[in-house]
Every structure is written in structure tokens, then in C-alpha cells.
Amino acid sequence: MSRRKAAVGQKPVALGSGRSKDDNNMLEALKLYENKSYKKSLKILDGILKKNSTHVESLALKGLNLVFTEQKQDAELYVKKAVSRITGTLASPICCHILGIYYRQVKQYANSITWFQASLDNGSTNKQIYRDISSLQSQERDYTNLLVSRKVYWETFMGYRANWTALAIAYDLNSQYSEAVNLLSRFEELAKGKLTETEAYEHNECLMYKNDLMYKAAGDDEQHLKAVLNNLDKIEPDVFDKYGWLERRAAVYMKLGSSKEAAKVYRTLIKRNPDNFNYYKLLEISLDIQSNNRIRKALYEKLETFYPRAEPPKFIPLTFIKDETELEKKLNHYIVSQLKRGVPATFCNVIPLYKQRGEVISSIAEKIVLEYYNTLDDKEFPIQYVWTVYYLAQHYLFLKDFKKAKDYIEKAIEHTPTLVELYILNGRILKHLGLLEEAAWTVEKGRTLDLQDRFINTKSVEYFLGANMIDKAVQLVSLFTKNDNDANGVKDLHLMEASWFIIKQAEAYYRLYVEHSKKLQSLKNEQTSISEEERENKTAELKELEYQTEKCRGLALKRFMAIPKIYKQFDDDKLDFHSYCMRKGTPRAYVEMLQWGDRIFCKPMFVRAMLGAAKIYFSMQDELDLTEQFTSEQTNAAKKANKKARKEALAFNKRKEAEKKQVLAYADDEDVFGETLVAVKSPLEAFYTEFYKPFLNQADDNDKYHLLEFQYQARTGKLALSLGALTKYAKFHGKSSPMVGCMILILLDMTRESAPYEDIAKKVAIKGIETEFKKFPLEKFSDDSFNWLEYLTSNYKVNLRSLLFLYQANISIVPQDKLKELIIESLSNVEPFIQNSILQYEL
């Protein structure tokens, strides 16, 4: 987004009629600021403050100027100094306005609203401030006060349609739909016959938005719904969005119970867009035939004759036909017709059926495709042959028959070694077999067939990151980035907010951190049983592992932290649209944007980063807890060792300087390796501020990760809240869930006498378990001989996920070695890729 800056925009008359020389000079500096002559403005302000260091307006304006000259820390000091000399918000209107602009610029929107409002309260006649306040209130979701601000601004500037639309939206956001409809109707009357051709699109949007409001206000009231229909008839000549118009008409008919009329509209929509699956489903509902497969089949056969090239009439019957002979006939026609045309995406088109109807579809499809495959000659029908073999490879991969999948993809590559798609699929198969490096190099071979294709480049990068070959991945991705004077494209990818790359690189660094950490621990354990000479020989290896471990952890956290930065930028970018969408007359798109913004921190990529960062922050907290428990005074020998370590650290610092260019993510970054992030004194607080708080503010109970909540609260020592997370998880997944059993054991372990928690918290936790999980044998807790692991496996259907969760908690009442054995036994039922991942990074 463009840099947001506003002029104070008010003639300087509010400093009092008898202005001092300092006031006049400050106003001159203000004009220079408005003209973006920041250095000249600062020069005048420095002169004022040299004589009068307490001149509040000059302090505030200097802070604002410094923000735009990228001296943000100094700016903050001057603004704080200005605010400290103000009683409450009793300052001149200009000073308050300057402070409002400053706080908006530094994204402290609540403070900005306070000072903009203070400017008005203290006598400012600049009503434009209400527009700024309105945008900020929208950003802060303060819809109650937004309505007040929008109304005042509308009353002052009624000549602009944007202000009418903005007020209507404010009514909408406060669920005052009738007022919004009346307001928009009033403007339509005033503007009747006066609109130009350039205003036609805005008019169309506002007409449809008014109908949206009428529809929301109508609820299930018959008279109001008929009014919505009448309004649709009235506005039809002026509406460009015919799809939206027809969809609304059908929805109203359905609410009125006029299914026949609704069906006619849905048929019209299908005629306009025969590839929209949703219209067919809605047509079924309007005809009330969802449970009558015979009529549904007849309907789709008829529709297929009308729209022979459309996909839905062919596909949808495959989802409900029960008779296997008939299903085979239909599926044969659907699949083979595509294979004959050489459609690469044939399997992708069928995969929803595989997922929905399981073995029935997979066995029939296998029979159909193999029969067709056996009729093909690879020389006479080369296109049909290669895509049929490609289908079979995907089919067997889906069924986890990796040997057959590998055989078929090798046949395809042998037949047509120039098809990029074949190498990608071969890479996928190898990945599932756990051969990550081989998979990466296979996809890379495909990339070399088309060096101009960004998609295959991206795929190759993903596979190299999956194999922890970060340097190679960065080298390849940099082929398509703007590198300028940078060593590679990492900085450009952060600038372009390429979340896919950042998150995958973060995960790769985390896996390397775990690998190095394990090797380091193994080497440290080994040193206790070897001679002094051997220990000296291993010192260099030990230091290298320590360096790599800390480096990878810091970089993993650094990359994970880039994701909330991107999403906060998305959230901040909304600010400009609160006024832009009003000017452009796009109220429906604007309301959609607000709804999107209300869930932005629940998006999959943000959640993925949050869960990844949680692993690091939680391990950091666990390390801190252990350090506190085992801290003792350093011996003289340890002090000498520290002196030696300092010398070695200097050598590693030189190495870091050389490596900085390779991992630099932001210009002028002072924490390239994430060392400051890792050195944070309160990891849980940092995790909460950066990730968990934004997520919790937007997530509802269905979205919340109760396991994460349980882990987080357990580490904060709030056992009552851990119990709350446990009961919520049990509510959604059932008390017999194996994860519930594991969570109870973990919580129970935290109530041990030696556990470092308050007695009252322990009592609350025990009482909660007793109340919520009556069948759980709490009386056995004091019995040291009781086998809790045996109890868990006997009373819960434990799975790999629940066992891993329990293992990572490392509780004293369950032996880790026995638990590990059980996990390794369970690995026999999963594919090699998952086996390797768990063995390498979770055990």
C-alpha cells in the first residue's frame, strides 16, 4: 500500500487570537510539513525548541516529521514528551490533530481516535476529521461509535454519494437495516434523473447493496420478502450483476416457499453458467428431489443433453448412484471419455469420488482404467497411453500401493521422458516412500525440461525444502526473484509476502534444528565416557553442532515470525479501503472485506505458522524452567571455560557476518539470525503477543486448538485453564477420545506434590477431573505401582497422534521408554514418509 499521510488541513487559527512568535513559527513549519519539506520543517522546529523546549505543538510536530524521515525512535521520544506536558487531552486543536496523525502513522489506532476526537472537542472546526475518525473506528471494529462519526460527517457533506453509502454501511454494521434502506432510498429519490453514465456502475452496486439490506431485514417475513422481490423487479434495468440479481431472486422464492419459481430461476442460472456445481445442487433443493435418486438421475440425464460439454451433469450422478452396474457404466463413460481426449487432470476430476465413496469407486475405477489401458498401443495412441498410465500411477498412490505407483510412473517416463508432470508425480511417490532427497532431485530433473516455467520451479523449491536442502532451494527460487544487490531472493520473497516459501523454509530450519540438537545431545552424552584426549578431538565438532543448532533455531523462529508480520500488514492495509470503497461505490465488496478481515488470523497459513512457532517457544520455556531448577554457582573451571568460549564466539561471529547476506530477510535488519527472538526472557508472553492473542480474538470454539490451549496454559501454570481446555476438547471429540485420556494423565501429573504449582490450582484440577471424568480412577494416583500406560491402552483406543502428544509431555507417571516402544510399534501402520518424520523429529 502507498504510504498514508494526511495534512493537518486546518487553517491555523486555533492557537488563540494572540499568537506568540513560537506559535507563528510552528505554523510555518506545519505548512512545510504539509508540502513534504520535512527537513526545512525540522530546522524551524529545532529553532523553536532551542528557545522553548516545552512548546507542545512543536514537540508533537517534530515527532511527526521524524516519522516521515524514518527516525521512528526519536519521533516516539518527542511525542511522549509532548503528551507528558498535556493534561489529559486538553491541548490546542492543532496539537491534538498532529498527535492523531502521528498515532495513525505508527498504527496505534485507538490513540489516534482519542486525539482526533480531542481536536474536535477542543474547538476544531475541521469536520474532515470525522472522516479520519470513521476510518479508524472501522479499523478498530468500533461500530457503535462509527455510526455517530459517519452521521456527523454525512450531515456536513451531504452532496457526496460516498457519504450516504458510508452511513448506510455503518447502519448495516450495527444491524439497523431498515434505517440503512431508508437512507439509500432517500438518495435514490434525490438523484433520480441526474446520474451520468460514469456513475452507472456505482449506482448498480448501491442498488444491489440496498436489496441485500432489505433481504437481511426481511428475515422470514412474507410481506417483507415480497417487497424484496418487487425491489428486484424495479432495479433490474439498472443492475449489471445479473448473476447476483438472479441468485437473490431464487433465494427469496425459496424463503417464500415458491419452489417452482425458484427452480425456474436456477434453470436460468444453469443456462447462463452450466459449469457451476452449486446451481445444480440448489435446483435439486428447489425441486425437493434430494432423497429421490431415480428422479435425480433422470434430471441429470436431461440436463446432460442440454449441456453436453458441461461437467456437473456428468459428475453429480456418480455421487449418488447405488447400483454398481449402472455406476460402472456412468463412471466408464466419464473417465474413458477424458482419457481418450488426453486430459491430464482426469484423476484430479475423479478424486472427490474416491474420498466420498471410498472402496466402491476406487475398485470400479481401477477395473475401468486397466481395461482401457490394455486396449492401448503406446505407439498408435501415444497421448492416450501416457495419460492413462499417469492416471494409474496416481490411483495406486492414492491407495498407498507405492510399488505399483512407482512401476506405472516409470513406464510413463520411459514412454515420454519430456513431460514435466510425470517427474512431479514421481517425486510425490518418492516423497511418500520417505526418499526425500531422491524426490527433490527427480522433480529438479523435470524442472530442467522447462526453465521458463515458474510452477515447476516452485515445485522443485518445495521438494528441496522438504529434504532440508535449503541452500539449493534458495538458489532455485532466486532464478525468478528480483535480487538487485542481494545475494539471493530471500529478501524479495519476504517483500512479496510469499508465505508458501517462508513457512516451508521455517519448517526446514526447524527440522535441521531438531537434527543438530539430537546430534549435539548424543555427542555430549558420549563425552562422559571417553578419554580427555578424545574429548579434545571432539571439541571442534561439538562447537560446530552448537553453532548450527542455535543458528537453525533462530532462523526457524525468524521465518515463523515473518508470517504474523505479513498478516498484520494485511490487516493494516484495510485502513485505506474504509474510505476508498466509499468513493468507488463498492459497498458489497467492502462488507465482504470486513468479514474476511474478521477471520484473517484464523487463516490456514497463519495457524500453521502459529503451531510451528509454538514448538520453538514451548521448548524455550521448558529450557528456562530446567535452567531455573538446576542453577548453581559457577566453579573457577567453568569461568575459565567461559573465557575460552568467548574467544570461540568471536570466531563464530566472523562466520556469521559472512553468512548474513545469504539469510537476510529484511533491509537494515539488526537480528538477521533471530538471536534476539531466541533470547527473549518470556517465550510464552512473546508467543501469546505475536501469535496466540490475534488468533484467540478472532477464533470461535469450533476453530480453537484446544490441544494448543492445553499446552500453553499448562506451561503458564494455570491448571484451571488447562482443565478448561481439556473439557472443551472432550466436548467436541467425546470423553472416550484417546487424546482426552492423555490430557487427563498430563494434568494429573501436574498435580503431584513435587510439581511447582500452587496447591489451590492442583486441588481445582483434581476436583475438575473428578467431576467431569467420573470413570477415571483418581484413587490410583497415590499408588506408585499402578500402570497408567496399561490403563490408557486398555480403556482408550489410542492412536499414534495421542501417543506422540503424551510422549512430548514427558510426564513422570508414564515411563518414556515404554511409551516410545509403543509408538514405534504403531509406526508399522503408517507410510514410510510419516515413519521417518516421527523417528527423526518427534522421538
From TrEMBL:
TPR repeats lie at residues 386-419. The keyword Protein transport does not apply. The keyword Coiled coil applies. InterPro entries: NatA_aux_su (IPR021183), TPR-like_helical_dom_sf (IPR011990), TPR_rpt (IPR019734). Residues 1-20 are annotated as: Disordered. SMART domains: TPR (SM00028). Keywords: Coiled coil, Repeat, TPR repeat. It comes from the Eukaryota. It holds the Pfam family NatA_aux_su. GO terms for cellular component: NatA complex. This is N-terminal acetyltransferase A complex subunit NAT1.
